[in-house]
Amino acid sequence: MYKDKPVAIKIIRSPDDDEDGVMALRLEKQFSREVNLLSRLHHRGVIKLVAACRNPPVFCIITEYLAGGSLRMFLHKLEPESLPLQKLLSIALGIAQGMEYIHSQGIIHRDLKPENILFDENLCVKIADFGSACEEAYSDPLAEDAGTYRWMAPEMIKHKHYGRKVDVYSFGLVLWEMVTGRIPYGDMTPVQAAFAVVDKNLRPTIPADCPASLSALIEQCWASPQEKRPEFWQIVKVMEQFESILAQGGTLEQAQNLACNDHKKWLLHWIQKLKPHPHAHGMGPFAPKLL
């Protein structure tokens, strides 16, 4: 409890065998960066920072407590079943809306995965854990503390220049997990998965019973090169359209132009025609915001 409200506490502690203090400096830098970024984010789809405490070698980040648990826990409870389509789209839209806002603030999450997607008591989505996040203007291809291999974009694995589209790649993997109920590359170690993604351009197999329009979106999100991936504001509009069709008793197959049999080409054409939300402008290189 903090000021009579339930909270979650993330503790960052330097290891006892850190004799030269290198790890302590690295962890303190990570703590400062995470607190700085979280303090700038105010959105219903992002976990709320409550307080922070610095007492080397221990650092604490205090956030709101989210009683709904993580998307990973949610999917685990459903095993061996996967999410119903309507629920999948609702969660995916919440994730995309949170990420659209995060990107609009010039921030890359860099570790989007089911463990870092939380729910409140009403099952509203909240993006959490900004320990790997950074300002896009200062993204470092050589950073060692960014991401998790199974959800990591190939340009990050290769330590090449990257931008906010690495989060879109991860979102594609998260969508696939919600469709299948499985962890990506479950028959491989994380390193083997990273090698296969980079050297063989491997992606998980999308089930044949996945709606073609949703399958096309997943493939668009994890496309290489990164320029082929949509922005999150575009994904939000696509998801809103998908939800609208289902709400009217239709199917996702009705989302496509019936004259177009190639779902990938249809989706890409549709995305390119979309107009951004009013707050999604200026999605080029971001200028850092001074606090």
TrEMBL record:
Q: Which Pfam families match?
A: PK_Tyr_Ser-Thr
- The residues forming a coiled coil are none
Which top-level group of life is the source organism from?
A: Eukaryota
Q: Which InterPro entries match?
A: Kinase-like_dom_sf (IPR011009), Prot_kinase_dom (IPR000719), Ser-Thr/Tyr_kinase_cat_dom (IPR001245), Ser/Thr_kinase_AS (IPR008271), Ser/Thr_Kinases-Pseudokinases (IPR051681)
Please report the stretch or stretches of sequence annotated as the Protein kinase domain: 1-242
Q: Which GO terms describe its molecular function?
A: ATP binding; protein serine/threonine kinase activity
Record-given protein name: Protein kinase domain-containing protein
